């Protein structure tokens, strides 16, 4: 193992106060390997939230288990405890709690459910390293935590498993999947990333063509290699110490956006006892039609998350800690303008409807 990987494993363990950290090529490969080590069967159910990217249920299914999606709480965007409990049965083995956008609200209730029903709790802290609830760090409530080195950091790839449990089986499975040098996978991952973000300098047609040729499925396929590279570990190490400072700046961005829009915007609810990482800024619209109008006018791309009701009304923006007041204000104004455009469009629709009705009545009178 390279020296930077060893150092990163040690520092991540120290950061969360856990005994073991195991590095992987991605967060999804981390979760997949962890689930394999748990030896789940097809009938075994893993409860996850519906508002999530495809990589989570894909990893569960690849590991041989069954993913059970539960609608999220419309205020926190995290698992709804009441809905989760209704889904628990004799086949339920695992609950995965995703700290959506870095929000740990609800984790204690889900932990209590897991203890009550003797279930394994896995925390997805891809957005939430440094976040906490009641002073306890996200990633330390469950039996295991999985982390991505690309969501809060600028990196090529990388993921990590953090736990106080034995990781011998996990390492054994990871080592069996060392098929080729990790850097050979970088071009495909870059193309997949371009497809996901709809890079403005490439047309959708070009990206779709490349995607088909490369046999990419929205960048959600499991990587053929499972090892984090020393380059990825080096990049992560040099950003780990700045996580807290970036969180503070992201929190300020969230506060600014909320204050500017005030009553005009529904934002993600974060419990007073929770300290979120505020990894994304969310804009919630009254309905899908208004959201789509805003997307068409101001934004480039929406990920395909059809499993959740809230996905039809939301736009989320990566919360860059370097955003200034002017940038945050531009997001707010874009939202306000889209609302005005929608109101104007509704007035036009109403006018046309009334006009058509009058014309129809006039024709009836002429007859």
How would you describe this protein?
This protein is α/β, with parallel strands linked by helices and 367 residues long. It folds into 3 domains: 3-180 and 225-240, Aspartate Aminotransferase, domain 2, CATH 3.40.640; 181-224, no CATH class; 243-348, Aspartate Aminotransferase, domain 1 (Alpha-Beta Complex), CATH 3.90.1150.10. Helix content is 45%, strand content 14%. The chain has helices at residues 3-16, 27-37, 55-62, 81-87, 107-117, 168-176, 186-197, 204-214, 230-240, 243-261, 288-298, 325-366; strands at 20-24, 45-49, 66-70, 92-98, 120-124, 132-133, 136-137, 144-148, 159-163, 274-275, 280-284, 314-318. Strand 6 and strand 7 (136-137) form a beta hairpin. Helix 11 (288-298) packs across helix 12. Mean pLDDT is 83; it is low at 196-205 and 214-220.
Features:
12 helices, 3-stranded antiparallel sheet, alpha/beta, Aspartate Aminotransferase, domain 1, 3 domains, 7-stranded mixed sheet, 12 strands, 367 residues, 14% strand, Aspartate Aminotransferase, domain 2
Brief overview, please?
The chain has 367 residues and is an alpha/beta fold. 45% of the residues lie in helices and 14% in strands.
Mean pLDDT: 83
Strand arrangement within the widest β-sheet reads 1-9-8-5-4-2-3
Determine the strand fraction and express it as a percent band: 5-15%
Shape, per Cα inertia axes? globular
Distance between the termini: 89 Å
| Strand tally | 12
Question: Can you lay out the helices and strands and say which pair or pack?
Answer:
Layout: H1 3-16, E1 20-24, H2 27-37, E2 45-49, H3 55-62, E3 66-70, H4 81-87, E4 92-98, H5 107-117, E5 120-124, E6 132-133, E7 136-137, E8 144-148, E9 159-163, H6 168-176, H7 186-197, H8 204-214, H9 230-240, H10 243-261, E10 274-275, E11 280-284, H11 288-298, E12 314-318, H12 325-366
Parallel strand pairs: 2-3, 2-4, 4-5, 5-8
Antiparallel strand pairs: 1-9, 6-7, 6-10, 8-9, 11-12
Helix pairs in contact: 1-9, 2-3, 2-6, 7-8, 10-12, 11-12
């Amino acid at each position: 193992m390279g020296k930077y990987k060893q150092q990163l494993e040690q520092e991540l363990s120290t950061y969360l106060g856990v005994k073991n950290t195991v590095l992987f090529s991605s967060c999804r490969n981390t979760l997949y390997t962890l689930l394999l080590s748990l030896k789940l069967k097809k009938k075994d159910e893993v409860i996850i939230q519906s508002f999530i990217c495809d990589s989570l249920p894909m990893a569960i299914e690849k590991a041989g288990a069954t993913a059970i999606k539960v609608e999220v709480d419309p205020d926190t965007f995290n698992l709804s405890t009441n809905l989760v409990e209704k889904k628990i049965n004799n086949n339920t083995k695992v609950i995965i709690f995703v700290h959506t956008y870095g929000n740990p609200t609800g984790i204690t209730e889900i932990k209590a459910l897991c203890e009550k029903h003797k279930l394994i709790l896995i925390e997805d802290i891809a957005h939430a390293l440094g976040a906490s609830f009641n002073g306890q760090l996200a990633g330390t409530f469950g039996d295991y935590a999985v982390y991505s080195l690309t969501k809060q950091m600028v990196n090529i790839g990388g993921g990590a498993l953090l736990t106080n449990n034995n990781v011998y089986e996990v390492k054994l499975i990871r080592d069996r999947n060392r098929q080729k040098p990790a850097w050979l996978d970088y071009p495909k991952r870059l193309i997949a990333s371009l497809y996901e973000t709809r890079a403005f300098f490439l047309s959708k047609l070009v990206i779709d063509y490349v995607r088909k040729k490369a046999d990419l499925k929205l960048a959600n396929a499991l990587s053929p290699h499972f090892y984090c590279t020393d380059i990825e570990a080096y990049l992560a190490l040099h950003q780990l110490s700045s996580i807290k400072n970036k969180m503070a700046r992201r929190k300020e961005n969230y506060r600014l956006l909320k204050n500017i829009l005030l009553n005009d915007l529904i934002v993600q609810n974060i419990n007073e006892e929770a300290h979120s990482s505020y990894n994304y800024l969310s804009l919630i619209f009254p309905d899908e039609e208004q959201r789509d109008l805003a997307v068409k006018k101001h934004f480039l791309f929406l990920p395909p998350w059809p499993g959740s009701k809230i996905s039809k009304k939301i736009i989320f923006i990566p919360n860059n800690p370097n955003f200034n007041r002017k940038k945050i204000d531009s997001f707010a104004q874009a939202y306000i303008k889209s609302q005005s455009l929608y109101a104007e469009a509704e007035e036009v629709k109403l006018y046309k409807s009334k006009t058509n009705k009058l014309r129809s009545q006039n024709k009836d009178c002429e007859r």
